[in-house]
Specification:
There is one protein chain. Helices cover 37% and strands 28% of the residues. The chain is of the alpha/beta class and 249 residues long. The strands form 2 sheets. A 6-stranded mixed sheet has the order 7-8-9-3-10-11, with helices on both faces. The chain has a 5-stranded antiparallel sheet with strand order 2-1-4-5-6. The two termini are 32 Å apart.
Protein backbone atom coordinates (compact mmCIF):
# COMPACT_ATOMS: atom_id res chain seq x y z
CA UNK A 1 0.00 0.00 0.00
CA UNK A 2 1.49 3.34 -1.08
CA UNK A 3 -0.91 5.74 0.66
CA UNK A 4 -3.01 5.24 3.77
CA UNK A 5 -5.10 8.03 5.26
CA UNK A 6 -7.29 7.24 8.29
CA UNK A 7 -9.98 9.41 9.88
CA UNK A 8 -8.54 12.64 8.43
CA UNK A 9 -10.11 15.68 10.08
CA UNK A 10 -9.34 19.26 9.16
CA UNK A 11 -11.05 22.51 10.10
CA UNK A 12 -10.42 26.13 9.22
CA UNK A 13 -11.79 28.03 12.17
CA UNK A 14 -15.38 26.90 12.66
CA UNK A 15 -15.57 25.35 9.17
CA UNK A 16 -15.11 21.57 9.12
CA UNK A 17 -13.52 20.87 5.73
CA UNK A 18 -12.59 17.19 6.14
CA UNK A 19 -14.82 15.10 8.38
CA UNK A 20 -13.11 11.78 8.96
CA UNK A 21 -11.80 10.77 5.52
CA UNK A 22 -10.41 7.26 4.97
CA UNK A 23 -8.41 6.71 1.77
CA UNK A 24 -5.98 4.00 0.65
CA UNK A 25 -4.10 3.78 -2.65
CA UNK A 26 -2.31 0.64 -3.82
CA UNK A 27 0.88 0.53 -5.86
CA UNK A 28 0.15 1.15 -9.55
CA UNK A 29 -3.39 2.37 -8.87
CA UNK A 30 -4.84 5.53 -10.40
CA UNK A 31 -7.47 7.19 -8.21
CA UNK A 32 -9.51 10.15 -9.44
CA UNK A 33 -11.16 12.43 -6.88
CA UNK A 34 -14.19 14.30 -8.16
CA UNK A 35 -16.84 16.52 -6.61
CA UNK A 36 -18.08 20.10 -6.38
CA UNK A 37 -15.87 23.04 -5.50
CA UNK A 38 -15.57 23.42 -1.75
CA UNK A 39 -16.12 19.71 -1.14
CA UNK A 40 -12.67 19.16 0.35
CA UNK A 41 -10.82 17.59 -2.60
CA UNK A 42 -7.88 19.98 -2.79
CA UNK A 43 -7.63 20.20 1.00
CA UNK A 44 -7.32 16.40 1.13
CA UNK A 45 -4.40 16.55 -1.32
CA UNK A 46 -2.80 19.43 0.57
CA UNK A 47 -2.97 17.41 3.79
CA UNK A 48 -1.48 14.33 2.10
CA UNK A 49 1.43 16.41 0.78
CA UNK A 50 2.12 18.38 4.01
CA UNK A 51 0.99 21.72 2.55
CA UNK A 52 -1.67 21.68 5.26
CA UNK A 53 -1.54 20.04 8.68
CA UNK A 54 -4.41 17.86 9.85
CA UNK A 55 -6.23 18.19 13.17
CA UNK A 56 -6.68 14.45 13.72
CA UNK A 57 -5.99 11.21 11.88
CA UNK A 58 -3.14 9.19 10.48
CA UNK A 59 -1.22 9.39 7.20
CA UNK A 60 1.31 6.85 5.92
CA UNK A 61 3.14 7.17 2.60
CA UNK A 62 5.28 4.32 1.30
CA UNK A 63 5.06 2.62 4.69
CA UNK A 64 6.42 5.61 6.62
CA UNK A 65 4.18 7.36 9.14
CA UNK A 66 3.85 11.08 8.41
CA UNK A 67 1.39 11.86 11.19
CA UNK A 68 -0.59 9.99 13.80
CA UNK A 69 -2.96 11.03 16.60
CA UNK A 70 -2.15 10.92 20.31
CA UNK A 71 -4.35 12.30 23.07
CA UNK A 72 -6.85 13.48 20.45
CA UNK A 73 -4.24 15.61 18.68
CA UNK A 74 -2.25 15.15 15.45
CA UNK A 75 1.45 14.49 16.06
CA UNK A 76 3.84 14.78 13.10
CA UNK A 77 7.09 12.89 12.60
CA UNK A 78 10.46 14.53 13.19
CA UNK A 79 12.18 16.65 10.53
CA UNK A 80 14.40 13.83 9.25
CA UNK A 81 11.46 11.49 8.71
CA UNK A 82 9.43 14.34 7.23
CA UNK A 83 12.10 14.81 4.56
CA UNK A 84 12.09 11.05 3.92
CA UNK A 85 8.31 10.99 3.50
CA UNK A 86 8.33 14.03 1.23
CA UNK A 87 10.83 12.32 -1.05
CA UNK A 88 8.27 9.60 -1.71
CA UNK A 89 5.71 11.79 -3.47
CA UNK A 90 5.49 14.33 -6.27
CA UNK A 91 2.91 17.09 -6.59
CA UNK A 92 1.61 18.79 -9.72
CA UNK A 93 -0.26 22.03 -9.06
CA UNK A 94 -3.09 23.59 -11.04
CA UNK A 95 -1.16 26.88 -11.22
CA UNK A 96 2.16 25.31 -12.36
CA UNK A 97 4.16 26.82 -9.42
CA UNK A 98 7.43 26.98 -11.34
CA UNK A 99 10.18 29.27 -10.08
CA UNK A 100 9.98 32.20 -12.54
CA UNK A 101 13.65 33.17 -12.13
CA UNK A 102 14.89 29.61 -12.83
CA UNK A 103 15.28 28.07 -16.27
CA UNK A 104 13.31 24.93 -17.10
CA UNK A 105 16.42 22.86 -16.38
CA UNK A 106 17.02 24.47 -13.01
CA UNK A 107 13.36 24.09 -12.01
CA UNK A 108 13.79 20.34 -12.50
CA UNK A 109 17.32 19.86 -11.17
CA UNK A 110 17.29 22.20 -8.15
CA UNK A 111 15.75 19.72 -5.70
CA UNK A 112 17.72 16.81 -7.18
CA UNK A 113 21.00 18.58 -6.44
CA UNK A 114 20.26 20.39 -3.18
CA UNK A 115 17.77 18.04 -1.49
CA UNK A 116 18.53 14.64 -2.97
CA UNK A 117 22.28 15.30 -3.26
CA UNK A 118 22.62 14.20 -6.88
CA UNK A 119 25.64 15.40 -8.83
CA UNK A 120 24.96 18.08 -11.44
CA UNK A 121 25.79 15.57 -14.18
CA UNK A 122 23.32 13.02 -12.81
CA UNK A 123 20.63 15.67 -12.30
CA UNK A 124 21.11 16.95 -15.85
CA UNK A 125 20.82 13.42 -17.23
CA UNK A 126 17.53 12.85 -15.37
CA UNK A 127 16.31 16.25 -16.54
CA UNK A 128 17.13 15.54 -20.20
CA UNK A 129 15.39 12.15 -20.07
CA UNK A 130 12.23 13.67 -18.62
CA UNK A 131 12.18 16.67 -20.96
CA UNK A 132 12.56 14.27 -23.89
CA UNK A 133 9.61 12.27 -22.53
CA UNK A 134 7.57 15.49 -22.34
CA UNK A 135 8.66 16.66 -25.82
CA UNK A 136 10.34 19.67 -24.20
CA UNK A 137 14.09 19.07 -24.51
CA UNK A 138 14.50 22.09 -26.79
CA UNK A 139 13.07 24.30 -23.99
CA UNK A 140 15.61 23.30 -21.31
CA UNK A 141 17.17 26.77 -21.19
CA UNK A 142 13.91 28.71 -21.52
CA UNK A 143 12.22 30.49 -18.62
CA UNK A 144 8.59 29.93 -17.55
CA UNK A 145 7.49 33.32 -18.88
CA UNK A 146 8.47 32.17 -22.39
CA UNK A 147 6.37 28.99 -22.21
CA UNK A 148 2.69 28.34 -22.85
CA UNK A 149 0.53 27.11 -20.00
CA UNK A 150 0.64 23.58 -21.39
CA UNK A 151 4.42 23.68 -21.64
CA UNK A 152 4.71 24.96 -18.08
CA UNK A 153 2.51 22.12 -16.85
CA UNK A 154 4.67 19.58 -18.69
CA UNK A 155 7.69 21.01 -16.85
CA UNK A 156 5.71 20.71 -13.60
CA UNK A 157 5.04 17.04 -14.32
CA UNK A 158 8.70 16.45 -15.21
CA UNK A 159 9.75 18.09 -11.94
CA UNK A 160 7.35 15.83 -10.00
CA UNK A 161 8.74 12.74 -11.76
CA UNK A 162 12.40 13.72 -11.33
CA UNK A 163 12.79 12.27 -7.83
CA UNK A 164 11.29 8.92 -8.90
CA UNK A 165 8.46 9.15 -6.36
CA UNK A 166 6.24 6.31 -5.16
CA UNK A 167 3.11 8.38 -5.87
CA UNK A 168 2.20 11.58 -7.69
CA UNK A 169 -0.65 13.87 -6.66
CA UNK A 170 -2.31 16.06 -9.30
CA UNK A 171 -4.45 18.98 -8.11
CA UNK A 172 -6.71 19.84 -11.06
CA UNK A 173 -3.74 19.83 -13.46
CA UNK A 174 -5.74 21.19 -16.42
CA UNK A 175 -7.96 23.79 -14.74
CA UNK A 176 -5.73 26.71 -15.85
CA UNK A 177 -5.50 25.50 -19.46
CA UNK A 178 -7.66 25.99 -22.54
CA UNK A 179 -9.22 22.87 -24.13
CA UNK A 180 -6.51 22.38 -26.75
CA UNK A 181 -3.71 22.43 -24.17
CA UNK A 182 -5.77 20.32 -21.77
CA UNK A 183 -5.81 17.43 -24.25
CA UNK A 184 -2.01 17.36 -24.35
CA UNK A 185 -1.63 17.25 -20.57
CA UNK A 186 -4.27 14.55 -20.23
CA UNK A 187 -2.35 12.44 -22.78
CA UNK A 188 0.81 12.78 -20.66
CA UNK A 189 -1.11 11.55 -17.61
CA UNK A 190 -2.69 8.71 -19.63
CA UNK A 191 0.80 7.60 -20.66
CA UNK A 192 1.90 7.62 -17.00
CA UNK A 193 -1.13 5.50 -16.11
CA UNK A 194 -0.16 2.97 -18.78
CA UNK A 195 3.30 2.84 -17.18
CA UNK A 196 1.57 1.95 -13.87
CA UNK A 197 2.55 5.16 -12.10
CA UNK A 198 0.64 5.42 -8.82
CA UNK A 199 -1.45 8.60 -8.99
CA UNK A 200 -4.17 10.51 -7.17
CA UNK A 201 -5.82 13.04 -9.47
CA UNK A 202 -8.28 15.72 -8.43
CA UNK A 203 -10.08 16.55 -11.67
CA UNK A 204 -13.20 17.98 -13.28
CA UNK A 205 -12.57 16.00 -16.47
CA UNK A 206 -15.20 13.28 -16.07
CA UNK A 207 -14.56 11.32 -19.26
CA UNK A 208 -10.85 11.33 -18.50
CA UNK A 209 -11.52 10.08 -14.96
CA UNK A 210 -13.76 7.32 -16.31
CA UNK A 211 -11.26 6.16 -18.95
CA UNK A 212 -7.96 6.50 -17.03
CA UNK A 213 -8.68 5.95 -13.33
CA UNK A 214 -9.02 2.54 -11.74
CA UNK A 215 -11.20 4.00 -9.01
CA UNK A 216 -13.18 7.19 -8.54
CA UNK A 217 -13.92 8.88 -5.24
CA UNK A 218 -16.78 11.38 -5.10
CA UNK A 219 -16.40 13.93 -2.31
CA UNK A 220 -18.87 16.51 -1.08
CA UNK A 221 -19.21 18.36 2.19
CA UNK A 222 -15.91 17.04 3.54
CA UNK A 223 -16.86 13.36 3.28
CA UNK A 224 -16.52 10.57 0.71
CA UNK A 225 -20.07 10.14 -0.54
CA UNK A 226 -19.35 7.26 -2.91
CA UNK A 227 -16.42 5.39 -4.40
CA UNK A 228 -15.88 2.44 -6.68
CA UNK A 229 -14.58 1.32 -10.08
CA UNK A 230 -14.32 4.35 -12.35
CA UNK A 231 -16.78 3.25 -15.01
CA UNK A 232 -19.36 2.21 -12.39
CA UNK A 233 -19.26 5.61 -10.66
CA UNK A 234 -19.56 7.59 -13.90
CA UNK A 235 -22.01 5.35 -15.74
CA UNK A 236 -24.10 4.01 -12.85
CA UNK A 237 -23.71 6.01 -9.62
CA UNK A 238 -25.72 4.79 -6.65
CA UNK A 239 -25.85 7.94 -4.53
CA UNK A 240 -28.44 10.57 -5.46
CA UNK A 241 -25.86 13.26 -4.69
CA UNK A 242 -23.40 11.70 -7.15
CA UNK A 243 -26.12 11.43 -9.79
CA UNK A 244 -27.03 15.08 -9.30
CA UNK A 245 -23.40 16.19 -9.61
CA UNK A 246 -22.69 14.13 -12.74
CA UNK A 247 -25.89 15.35 -14.41
CA UNK A 248 -24.13 18.67 -14.87
CA UNK A 249 -21.48 17.10 -17.12
Amino acid sequence: MILQMKNIQKSFGSLDVLKGIDLTVEKGEVVAVIGPSGGGKSTLLRCATTLETIDKGEIKIGGDTLVTTKDDKAVYCDRKMLQEVRSKFGLVFQGFNLFPHFSVRRNITEALIHVHKKSKEEADKICDQLLTKMGMLDKADAYPCNLSGGQQQRVGIARALATNPDIIFFDEPTSALDPELTAGILKVIRDLAEEKMTMVIVTHEMSFARDVADRIIFMDGGVIVEQGPAKDIINNPKSERTKSFLAGY
